[in-house]
Structure formats: C-alpha cells, structure tokens
Design the sequence.
C-alpha cells in the first residue's frame, strides 16, 4: 500500500502543478495568493496519503481538496470562473480574501493532524475470543445473509414507495416520529453498520474477504441510497473499499479483486446517479405542474392546464442548474456532469461569507438558533444572499415539497464570527476530537477498520454539509453513538456459555 500512496502522490503533484498553472491565467485576483492556496491544499492532501494517517484525516483532506482547490480551479478552467452558490457575481471581487481565510483554516487542520500523529498514535487491540454474534453468524452464514438481504430490500422499497426520507424533498405524510426515524437511521447508519460487522467477522475470524459478501453489502448501499434519491453512493462505496487496503495480505489476486470492486462501484454509481436524477426531475416536473394548475385555476383556466406539454413542464423547474446557459434543459446526463464540479462545498460558501458586512459573534449565535423550516429559505441562504438568481425557491406541490438547502460547511460556518482566532482554535479542537474518536472507535470495535472508515466518512461528509439548523446536530451525534454501540455489542457481547472476555 505504501507504493500505491507513493505513486498517487507523484501523480497528485504533477496534476496539481499542471492545472494550477492553467487555471492561474483566469484567476482575477493576486496570482501568488492562488498559488499559495494550491500549494497548501495539495500539501495537506499529500501529507495525509500514507499508511499512518487515520481514515478521518484522509477523508477530510480529500473533501478540502475537492471543495476548495478542485472546485475553484476547474471552475476557472471550464465554467468561466463562475462559482455556483457563492452569491452575486460581484462577490468574486473578494476571491483573494476568501482564499486567504481558507488557507488560514486549512493550516489549522494541518497543525491538528500533525499534533495527532506526534502525540496520539494508534494501538491495535484484538480480542481473540469470538463474540456471541460472531459465532451465530459463522455458524449460520447463508441464513443470516438471506435474512439481511430480505430486510434491506423491504426497508428500501418501503422508503421509496412511502416517501419516508428522500434528499431534496419534504413529504406531508403522517408516519410516527419513531417509525420514520428508525427507517432513516437504518438507511443511513444501521444497515451499513451491520454490513461492516459481517465483513470484519470474516476477515478477523476466518481470514477471508469474500467478493460475494462484498457484492451483497454494496447492493444494500445501492438500494438504500437510491431509495433516498441520494447521489452520494459512490463516496460511501469508495470509503468502504478504501478500508480493504488494511487487509491486502488476505487478498490473493489483488488486481482481479480490485478490478471487480471498481467495476461494481462504477456500475452502481451510474445506475444510482441516473435513477436518482431521473426521479428527481420527474418529481420536480410534477410539483411544477401542480403549481401551474393551481395558478390557472385561480385564473379560471384549469381546462388549459391539463393540456400542458412536456416541454412547458420542464420550463418550470429552474432549481436544477446544469449549465452557465439557462436555456440548457436538465436531463440525467448533463445534470451528472454539472454535479461533478459543483457538488462540493467549500470555496463557494467562503466567498459568500467573507463578502458579508454582518460578520460577528452576534451573527454566529443567531445562526445557532435556526430551526428547520419548510416554506422558506435557510438562515445561510437569506443572510448571505447565495440564492441571488432566485433558483432555489421552495416549490410546494400536492404530494411533496421540493426544498434543496444550500449549506456552508463547518469551515465557513465558523467564520460567521469574522474572527481568525476563533476559526483557527475551533477547527483545531474539532479535528483533534474527531481523530481521537476514530481511535477510540477502533478500540471499542476490536479494531474494525471497515466500520472506522465508514463512520469517519459519515462524519466528514456531515462536516462539509453543515450549517442548516445546527442545534439539531444532536440527532446526528446520537445516531453516531447508536451505531458505535450497535457494533460494539455485536463485536464483544458474550453469554456465560461462551466465557468471559479476556
């Protein structure tokens, strides 16, 4: 694995230099500030890409690279320097300020990772005795896998057909709080946590990595994320796959193994992305048609509403931007291409935040009081005018509400204060706490690297999608601890029949 990291680092250096030089010609600010920006972010990425780094450190550096350097650099090259969701075009005059604040925050992350490696090293702690649930699984593999497949298929179908939880949409259903949250937790945490237990049990107890079991686990994630209309599947699959690098000695034919895995990931990614975009567009058209019919009914023109063509329906879904050209109609293909550059949060929100004259601790504490709302924009969207072109209006239909929230991410969120010291210290402490949490998770779960990779990715993803109703983060924290407790019990629980833990 060390050789793989070394080769990738060399590639990253060449890639970073080449595209930085190309993009620098279009940078509207100080070219030396942009070059420093590229140097710091790519250095952090290279620093974390080694076998001694934690999963969280690698994932955090990856998201920073994507959200800050990749997004800005490739927007300069391919999107005329337009940074979507950064507010009015005039905000771009503050690009150097946004870059300098970003560099300051990223140096804080760099420093926290350095301190972690210096003073908090990982220690392997393997329990030799099998747990009660490990024994049950090893003795009844086929039955348990069959039951597991049945369970996740039922949950995914229920979620999709009953519209319990789907990204970008809110539903007016009357399911109980307990039922809807159990389904949501199972889709986001529970099912994958159990998958991590199954894979690791085979790795730890019979020294085997089964392609068949991996296919089952990937299929669970494919169904779960597709039922949620989430296009984040590829990142979750990649996080699980990356954890296999810790067990390369168990893989006999490494080339064939990873070729099969990568093929599965690409097929599932393409299927999930096309399906999610197709359903999202259809749902948006349905909502737009509902709105149009209501407007026409108000004008006593309901007879004409029923004859709306598909072309006209498409014209009433401005929320889906797929090009700098507003006349380009959204479809699953061009939407996917647009998402590749613009899906990542980072430099866009930093530009919006530093362009505001409202920054201060009063604004920061005010943001903490935000509550979830259905029929209006978020605190971040209204305060920083990120929806200056009106493309994110809430659309309320008969069956569902389209509401896609734009989020600042944790780095930009901490700079609501406008205070560099607060930004540096807050980021440093938060990074260190999460690093120590990953180390502790490994200790609790019998050094389960599969689960550690999964949970660290989920936390990283949350940090970069942070900023809406932040006081509700306790629900996410509870979900994380429930997952840790769940796999801890699966991995360590013993009955008197199996003896005591050594």
Sequence:
């Amino acid at each position: 694995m060390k050789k793989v990291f070394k080769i990738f680092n060399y590639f990253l250096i060449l890639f970073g230099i080449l595209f930085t030089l190309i993009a620098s010609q279009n940078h509207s600010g100080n070219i030396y500030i942009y070059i420093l920006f590229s140097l710091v972010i790519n250095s952090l990425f290279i620093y974390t890409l080694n076998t001694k780094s934690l999963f969280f450190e690698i994932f955090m550096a990856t998201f920073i690279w994507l959200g800050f350097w990749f997004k800005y650099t490739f927007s300069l090259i391919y999107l005329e320097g337009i940074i979507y969701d950064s507010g009015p075009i005039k905000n771009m005059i503050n690009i150097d300020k946004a870059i300098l604040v970003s560099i300051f925050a990223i140096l804080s992350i760099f420093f926290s990772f350095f301190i972690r490696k210096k003073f908090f090293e990982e220690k392997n702690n393997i329990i030799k005795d099998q747990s009660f649930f490990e024994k049950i699984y090893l003795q009844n593999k086929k039955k348990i896998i069959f039951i597991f497949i049945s369970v996740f298929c039922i949950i995914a179908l229920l979620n999709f057909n009953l519209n319990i939880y789907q990204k970008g949409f809110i539903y007016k259903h009357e399911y109980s709080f307990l039922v809807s949250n159990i389904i949501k937790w199972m889709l986001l945490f529970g099912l994958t946590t159990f998958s991590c237990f199954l894979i690791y049990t085979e790795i730890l107890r019979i020294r085997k990595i089964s392609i068949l079991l991996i296919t089952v686990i990937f299929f669970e994630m494919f169904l779960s994320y597709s039922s949620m209309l989430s296009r984040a599947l590829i990142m979750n699959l990649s996080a699980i796959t990356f954890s296999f690098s810790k067990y390369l000695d168990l893989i006999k034919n490494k080339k064939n193994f990873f070729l099969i895995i990568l093929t599965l990931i690409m097929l599932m990614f393409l299927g999930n992305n096309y399906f999610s975009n197709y359903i999202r567009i259809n749902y948006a058209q349905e909502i737009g048609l509902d709105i149009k019919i209501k407007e026409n009914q108000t004008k006593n023109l309901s007879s004409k509403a029923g004859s709306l063509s598909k072309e006209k329906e498409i014209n009433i879904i401005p929320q889906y931007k797929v090009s700098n050209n507003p006349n380009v109609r959204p479809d699953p293909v061009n939407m996917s291409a647009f998402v590749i550059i613009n899906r990542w949060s980072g430099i866009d929100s930093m530009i919006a935040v530093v362009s505001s004259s409202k920054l201060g601790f009063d604004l920061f504490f005010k943001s903490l009081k935000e509550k979830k709302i259905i029929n209006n924009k978020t605190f971040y969207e209204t305060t920083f005018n990120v929806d200056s072109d009106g493309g994110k209006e809430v659309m309320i239909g008969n069956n569902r509400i389209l509401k896609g929230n734009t989020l600042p991410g944790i780095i930009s969120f901490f700079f609501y204060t406008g205070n560099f010291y607060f930004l540096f210290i807050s980021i440093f402490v938060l990074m260190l706490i999460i690093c120590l949490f990953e180390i502790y998770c490994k200790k609790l779960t019998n050094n389960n690297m599969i689960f550690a990779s999964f949970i660290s990715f989920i936390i990283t993803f949350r940090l970069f999608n942070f900023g809406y109703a932040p006081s509700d983060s306790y629900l996410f924290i509870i979900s994380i601890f429930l997952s840790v407790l769940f796999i801890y019990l699966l991995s360590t629980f013993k009955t008197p029949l199996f003896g005591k833990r050594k």
Summary: DSSP finds 20 helices and three strands in the chain. The CA atoms of residues 49 and 269 lie 24 Å apart. The chain has a mean pLDDT of 85.
